[in-house]
Amino acid sequence: MHTPVTIIGAGLGGLTLARVLHVRGVPVTVYEAESSPSARTQGGMLDIHDYNGQLALEAAGLMNEFHAIVLEGRQAMRVLDRDGTVLLDKADDGTGGRPEVQRSELRRILLDSLPAGTVRWGHKVSSTRALGEGRYEVTFVDGGTVSTNLLVGADGAWSRVRPLLTTATPEYTGTSFVETYLFDADTRHPAAAKAVGGGMLIAPAPGREIFAHRESGDTLHTYVALARPQDWFDAIDFTDAAAATARIAREFDGWAPELTALITDGDTAPVLRPHYALPTGHRWDRVPGVTLLGDAAHLAPPNGEGANLALLDGAELGRAIAAHPDDIEAALTEYEQAMFLRSAEPATFEGVELSEIFSADNTSHGLIDMITEKGK
Fold this sequence. Notes:
Distance between the termini: 47 Å
Strand order of the largest sheet: 5-4-13-14-15-12-16
Helix content: 25-40%
């Protein structure tokens, strides 16, 4: 294949696609809005599953690099009641099939695996348009343009490529995370560190939940999940860190202090992360020369699968293109049919559908019962 593949977005899915194409001799260019690889933080921990994400990294020839960045012991999981009682304590015995890595490290090994110049930084897309006969023009904010015969939107929730294929747009799911970090936790926040343990903590209640991960460098990363409408969050001034922290903490009045400390003792200002999703089973009719992967194609609420599916999308699309160098439409059809089936599965966490987790039955005992039942 001599026509270069144009990828919009240097996230995990776009970079995996670029890597799989590179090792198979297919020319590729990635355009990324960020000005550099270090322009912003890349989020927290990811559990990379042996049935999707790891398969993608194997296709990319990066399993040794992946194993080198795994944080041992982080598959451990605890479920606590709101009074701090530990109700479930699963050790990481190394057989869970979902080792944890830092997102930033995973992105780094993907970037390092590509030739210099593959990613063009500082190219924020303002619009895309069809030129006819399967060709597309991408216009950047700085006024520059590029045209291509094969365009892949790996540009996330608010994709600029998606409108070429579908009118669907993400909608608020009714839940949001508020993120905080505690640094040097074992020495500066010992009670919270003890509660979290060596891996992940979950403390659920109806319409609210505290998640926390032990990340690298003795850091606790907390996700406070709340089922509230957008206007409820709009009434909170997140530019006033102290006031915002106090307002979120009030939703957990009466909870154990080692749990509420994950909110009130944060070493960073709280950050609101609303959850948006595309319709379950979102798909489109085949349009020549363009497709989507990852969140651009099947955005869902956080469930532990998003990054894994993006990785697998990138790997599967790359293999399909390389396998059909003279029939790109056959490659895109093959990829999309499989991707649509994968993305139609309901959003889950630990095998439990998210609608169940944020229901009136969302208690620590109820969560353990659901996880246990799903594991049978």
